[in-house]
Amino acid sequence: MQKRLLALLISQLVAVSLFCAGFFPQKKVLKSEAQFIEEPALQNEAKPVFNKLVLVVIDALRSDFLFEKSNSKFSFLHSLLNEGSAWGFTAYSNPPTVTLPRLKGITTGSTPNFLDAILNVAEDDSSSNLNDQDSWVRQFFSHGKKLRFFGDDTWLKLFPKEYFDEYDGTNSFFVSDFEQVDHNVTRHLPKQLNNQQEWDALILHYLGLDHIGHKGGPNSQFMPAKQEEMDEILKQIYENVDDETLICVMGDHGMNDVGNHGGSSAGETSAALALISKKLRRYAPPAEQIGVQLPVQNADGEVDYQYLTRIQQVDIVPTLAALFNFPIPKNSVGILIQETLQLLDPKLAKIKLLENLKQLDSISNGHEVIQDEANIDQLYDLMKDIQSDLTRSATNYNYDLMGMGLALLVITTIITVLVGSNRMEFGHPFFFTMIVSLLIGLSSFGSSFVEEEHQIWWWISTGATLASSVYLVDEKYTHFVILVCLRIIRAWNNSGQKHFNENTVFDILKRNPTEQWYLNFFAIVICGLKGSSGDIVTFMCSFVLTALCLVYKVTWALVNRETVPHWLYEVAYKSCSIMMGDTTDVFDKSLIPLAQLFFRCFAGCVAVAVVACKMGGNKNSHAISTFITLLLIFQSQSPNIPLFFVFDVLKSSLNKIVSKRYNSDAYMISAVSLILQYFTFFHFGGTNSIATVDLSNAYNGVSENYNIYAVGFMMCVSNFAPSIYWSTFTWNLLYKTNKKWHNFFQSKLTFLMFNCISGCCLMFACVALRFHLFIWSVFSPKLCYYATWNIFMNLVIGWILEIPLALTT
C-alpha cells in the first residue's frame, strides 16, 4: 500500500501542476513598438500638450482616500480639484488587484494575466518583465526622453534598467515598514525638482499607504498621517513645476475592508486617479466635477467608491500617448479619456481618436467600418464595445496541458477511490469521505458556493457532531462541548466574501484591547505550558518559548501603537531593555531581534524534543506539538490568539471520543482532522480570495535584506496556522503505537481521496466556466488555493515535515 499511495500522491501533484500550467499560461502579446496609424506625417509633426510628466503612484490609493470627506486628508489636492487645476477620476482596476499586473496595465494598457498575481511575490522572477512589450515607458525611452524612477522595485523587474537615467528601488513586500520605505523615495525629490532640465519623466511609487492597509486596515490610526504626508509631497511637486508639466497621481489598486487586496470587491477595484497641471485651469473640468465641492460627503454614510468620472484604469495609457504625442502601445485596450480631448487641437483630437479606434480594432482582429462623418460620441461607443470584448477574451488557454492534467487526475481519482473502498471496506469512514469530497467538489460549479465555502464546512462539522451524538448517546456532554467550541470559532471572524459583520469576536476584541490582552496572556500561557510539568527540559523549553512569544506579541502591538495593559507594558519594556539597552525607541529596535531569537529557540527546542523522544520513547512527543502551537500563535494576529485555547478545549473533547469510543481508527481520525483543517481555516479569516492573504506576520524577524522563500514559507504558516494545528491533532492519536507507518499511510489515504475527488470537480468547473464572468475573480483564486492546499498543507506539512517530527520520534 505504501508504494502505491506514494505513487498516487505524485501522480495527483503532477496532474494539478499540468492543469495549472495550462490554465494560467503566459498571455500572447504583440511585440515591437507601435507606429502612428492615422495620418502619421501630421502626428509626427504635432507638438505635445505637455513637455514633462510626473507620475506619482500611491500604492493602494482607494478612491475614497482621495475624494471622500471622512476618509481623505489630501487637503491641498482638494483645493486644486475645486479650483480646476486638477481633474479627478475613479479608475476601475481589473482583478487580480495586486501590484504587478496593475503596473502592467497602467504602462502597456493590456488586460491582466492572473499568473502575474502569483509572480507578484517572486522577487527574483524575470518571466513577467516587459522587455519585448510596448509601453509608454518604452515609447518615452525610444523617443529620446530621459526617465527617472524612485520607489517600488517592481518597476525594475518589469522594465530594463537602461530605460531609466537614474533609479532607486525600494522593496515592496517588507510590509512592516511604512515610514522608511517612503522616505527612501522622497529623499530624491529635492534634487530632481532642482534639476528638472535633466529629465522628461519622473516616476515615484510610494508603498507606505499600502503597508499600513496590510497591517491595520483602511481605518488604521496611521492612515491620516500618511495621507497628509502624500498630500504634502504633491504640494511640493506642484509648486516647483511649470505649466508644461503634467502630474498624474493614482493608485494601482484599492483595498478591501480589512486592508488587503487581490480580489474583485468594489473597494479593491476602485482606485483614485487625478490629473494635475496649472494648465488645466484654462479648460472646463469633467462634467461630474462641475459644481462639486471636494471632498464629498457620502449620503447616509454609505460608501460605493464611485466618485466623479468613472474610467478604466488602462485608459491612462492612450491618454498619455495623446498628450505627449507618441503612438499608443500595441497591446493597449484603453480608451482616450474623453475630457482630455479639449486640450488638443480639434483636428488633431479627431485624428487621435481615430488612431485609438484603429489600434483597438487591430488587436481585436476586427474589421470595423469607420465612417468619416461619425461623431465623437459614436466613436466612443464603438471603442467601448471593442474594449469590452477584448477584456472578456483576454486569455489564451493551453488546452493540451489542461487536458493532460485533467485526464491524469481522473485516472488517479478512480484508482484512489478503488484503493479506498478496498482498504476502508466500504465502512462509515469511506462513505463519509466520499460524501464530504463530493459536496465540496460539486459546490465548485457555483460561484456563490465558492465564495461562501465556509458555510458548507460549518454544516459538515456540526452535522457530523450531531450524528456522532446520536450514535454515542452517553457522550452527550462531550458533544455539547464540541458544538459550543464550533459555534465560538464560527463567530470569531468574518468568513466568506459576500457578507461583512462588524461585531465579530475579532472586531470586539480589537475595540477592547485590555480584555483582548488578558485573553491573549491566558491563551499563550495555557497553550504553551500545558502538559510540560513532568519533564524539566520540556518545561524549560516551553517556558522560554512562551515568554518570548508573549513579549514579542506585546512589543509588536506597542510598535503599532496599540493599547496593552500597563503590567504587560512593563514586562515587555524590561525584556526589551535587557536585549537592546534603555533607549527611547527600545520597542522598535527590539522587534526584529526578538523574533529572530524566538525562531532560533524554537528550532533548538524542537531539536531537543526530537532527540529526547529518540532516547526516551514517546513521553516527550507531545512537546513538539506544543512548540508548534506556540509558533502558530506567534504567526497569528493578536485578536485570533484566544482561538488556540478554544482549539485546545475542542481537541481534548475530540481525543476523548475518538480514542475511547472509536478505537483510534486512523480513517476516522484523519476525517476529523480534514474537516477541522478546512473549517478553522475559513473561520480564522481565510477565504478563497487572494484579497484575504495576510502578510502582516510573514515578515516577523525579517530585515530589509530577506529571503523570499523563507518569507513565503512564513506567509503560508501564518495563513494556514489553524489548519497546521489540526494536522498535528492526529500525531498523538496515531503514532503512539508500534504501527506508526501503517497508521500514517492509512490517514493519508483519506486526504488523497478528498483532494482527488474535489480536485476533479474543480478542474471540470474551471474548464466548463472558463469564459464565465467570474472566472478570474472567483474560480481562478479557488484553483490557486487548491494547489496551495495540495503543495503546502498536503505535501510539505503532511508528508515532508510530519515524517521526521512525528513518525521518527
Automatic annotation (TrEMBL):
The keyword Calcium does not apply. GO terms for biological process: GPI anchor biosynthetic process. It is found in: Endoplasmic reticulum membrane. It is a multi-pass membrane protein. GO terms for molecular function: CP2 mannose-ethanolamine phosphotransferase activity. InterPro entries: Alkaline_phosphatase_core_sf, Phosphodiest/P_Trfase, PIG-G_N, PIGG/GPI7, PIGG/GPI7_C. This is GPI ethanolamine phosphate transferase 2. Keywords: Endoplasmic reticulum, Glycoprotein, GPI-anchor biosynthesis, Membrane, Transferase, Transmembrane, Transmembrane helix. Its main location: endoplasmic reticulum. Residues 394-802 form the GPI ethanolamine phosphate transferase 2 C-terminal domain. The gene is TDEL0D01860. Belongs to the PIGG/PIGN/PIGO family. PIGG subfamily. It comes from Torulaspora delbrueckii (Yeast). SUPFAM superfamilies: Alkaline phosphatase-like. One of its GO terms (cellular component) is plasma membrane. It comes from the Eukaryota. The chain crosses the membrane at residues 401-419, 431-450, 456-473, 536-559, 591-612, 624-647, 667-685, 706-729, 749-771, 783-801. Ethanolamine phosphate transferase involved in glycosylphosphatidylinositol-anchor biosynthesis. Transfers ethanolamine phosphate to the GPI second mannose. Pathway: Glycolipid biosynthesis; glycosylphosphatidylinositol-anchor biosynthesis.
